[in-house]
């Protein structure tokens, strides 16, 4: 009877551990350094798209009624694209948050960029921006650009160091 109980207890412990969600340590441990860098490049490309095809164009539209290269622009379409691209945010946040301390500046710059982007995305969805106006979120746009640039630099740095 004791043997059966011990076997059942061991089986229960094993089964309980099998269904657990992956922790930060296990997510990073399951990926090679090359895979991590590849995923960081994917996140970097996404963050650049959020800037180039969304926040930057909105910023220029607010200043002069055109996109970032001086062409006419449909602000509603730009906001739609931004919202569509922004759907990947949670996936990328989860990945970046799962990285170890050796990625500290990458993690903090990404987190800060997302905090600023969240504000901008919320504001442009609350009220459609008008051309030639000074928004109350201009500072958030500038800070997003600063943090996104740092993220880009650090990811590019580790990409080329290998």
Question: Tags for this entry?
Answer:
about 160 residues, about 75% helix, mainly alpha, disordered N terminus
Kindly summarize this structure in a few lines.
Helix content is 75%, strand content 0%. The chain is mostly helical. The protein has one domain (32-161).
Describe this structure as you would to a colleague.
With 162 residues, this protein is an all-alpha fold. The protein has one domain. Helices cover 75% and strands 0% of the residues. Helix 3 (33-64) packs antiparallel against helix 4 (75-85), helix 3 (33-64) runs antiparallel to helix 7 and helix 6 (104-126) runs antiparallel to helix 7 (138-161). The longest helix has 32 residues, at 33-64. The radius of gyration is 22 Å and the shape is elongated.
SSE map:
Layout: H1 2-18, H2 24-29, H3 33-64, H4 75-85, H5 89-97, H6 104-126, H7 138-161
Helix pairs in contact: 3-4, 3-7, 5-6, 6-7
């Amino acid at each position: 009877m004791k043997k059966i109980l011990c076997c059942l207890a061991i089986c229960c412990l094993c089964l309980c551990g099998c269904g657990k969600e992956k922790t930060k340590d296990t997510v990073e441990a399951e990926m090679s350094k090359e895979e991590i860098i590849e995923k960081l490049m994917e996140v970097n490309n996404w963050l650049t798209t959020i800037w180039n095809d969304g926040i930057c164009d909105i910023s220029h539209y607010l200043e002069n009624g055109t996109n970032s290269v001086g062409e006419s622009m449909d602000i509603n379409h730009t906001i739609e694209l931004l919202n569509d691209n922004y759907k990947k945010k949670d996936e990328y946040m989860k990945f970046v948050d799962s990285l170890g301390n050796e990625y500290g500046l990458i993690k903090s710059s990404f987190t800060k960029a997302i905090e600023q982007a969240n504000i901008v995305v919320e504001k442009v969805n609350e009220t459609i921006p008008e051309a030639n106006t000074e928004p109350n979120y201009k500072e958030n746009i500038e800070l997003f650009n600063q943090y996104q640039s740092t993220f880009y630099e650090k990811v590019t740095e580790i990409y080329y160091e290998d």
